[in-house]
Design goal:
CATH superfamily: Rieske [2Fe-2S] iron-sulphur domain
Structural class: mainly beta
Strand content: 35-45%
Number of strands: 10
CATH topology: Rieske Iron-sulfur Protein
Bound molecules: FE2/S2 (inorganic) cluster
């Protein structure tokens, strides 16, 4: 694959996230943070939560509200107790279009150690 159009930049307001099925059937989460866009796999790297629902953006920081893992979307630095980095597609803006470079779908690996449910998390 190569550069593909993901969406119009106006489709994703600042401080919001939107899941889009890009060309080739690749699901991409568009994150519009203060000053830029990121194109991401649509799930949290912690426990596969759909970030379109569990993610919130404030300024440059995206937080997954499920267990509060967070990342600076500008620098991609992990915040606080976050243990896994985000994967990202390279992006560029052409006119009004947000483009992403997609060679292959980016996926996270999940292991059994992360298989705790909400109850065990809050009882720790
Ligand atoms: S699933 Fe996102 S922080 Fe746990």
């Amino acid at each position: 694959m190569s550069w593909i159009k993901v969406c119009k930049t106006s489709e994703v307001p600042e401080n919001s996230l939107k899941k889009i099925w890009a060309a080739g059937g690749v699901p991409i989460l568009v994150a519009h943070y203060k000053g830029g866009f990121r194109a991401l796999p649509p799930v949290c790297p912690h426990m596969e939560e759909p970030l379109e629902e569990s993610g919130v953006i404030a300024g440059c920081v995206m937080t997954c509200t499920k267990h509060l893992w967070a990342w600076d979307l500008k620098t991609l630095e992990m915040q606080g107790e976050t243990e896994k980095p985000l994967k990202t597609y390279e992006t560029k803006i052409e006119g009004d279009d947000l483009m992403a470079f997609v060679e292959q779908e980016l996926l996270y690996e999940f292991d059994d150690e992360d298989d705790m449910d909400d109850d065990s998390f809050f009882n720790c």
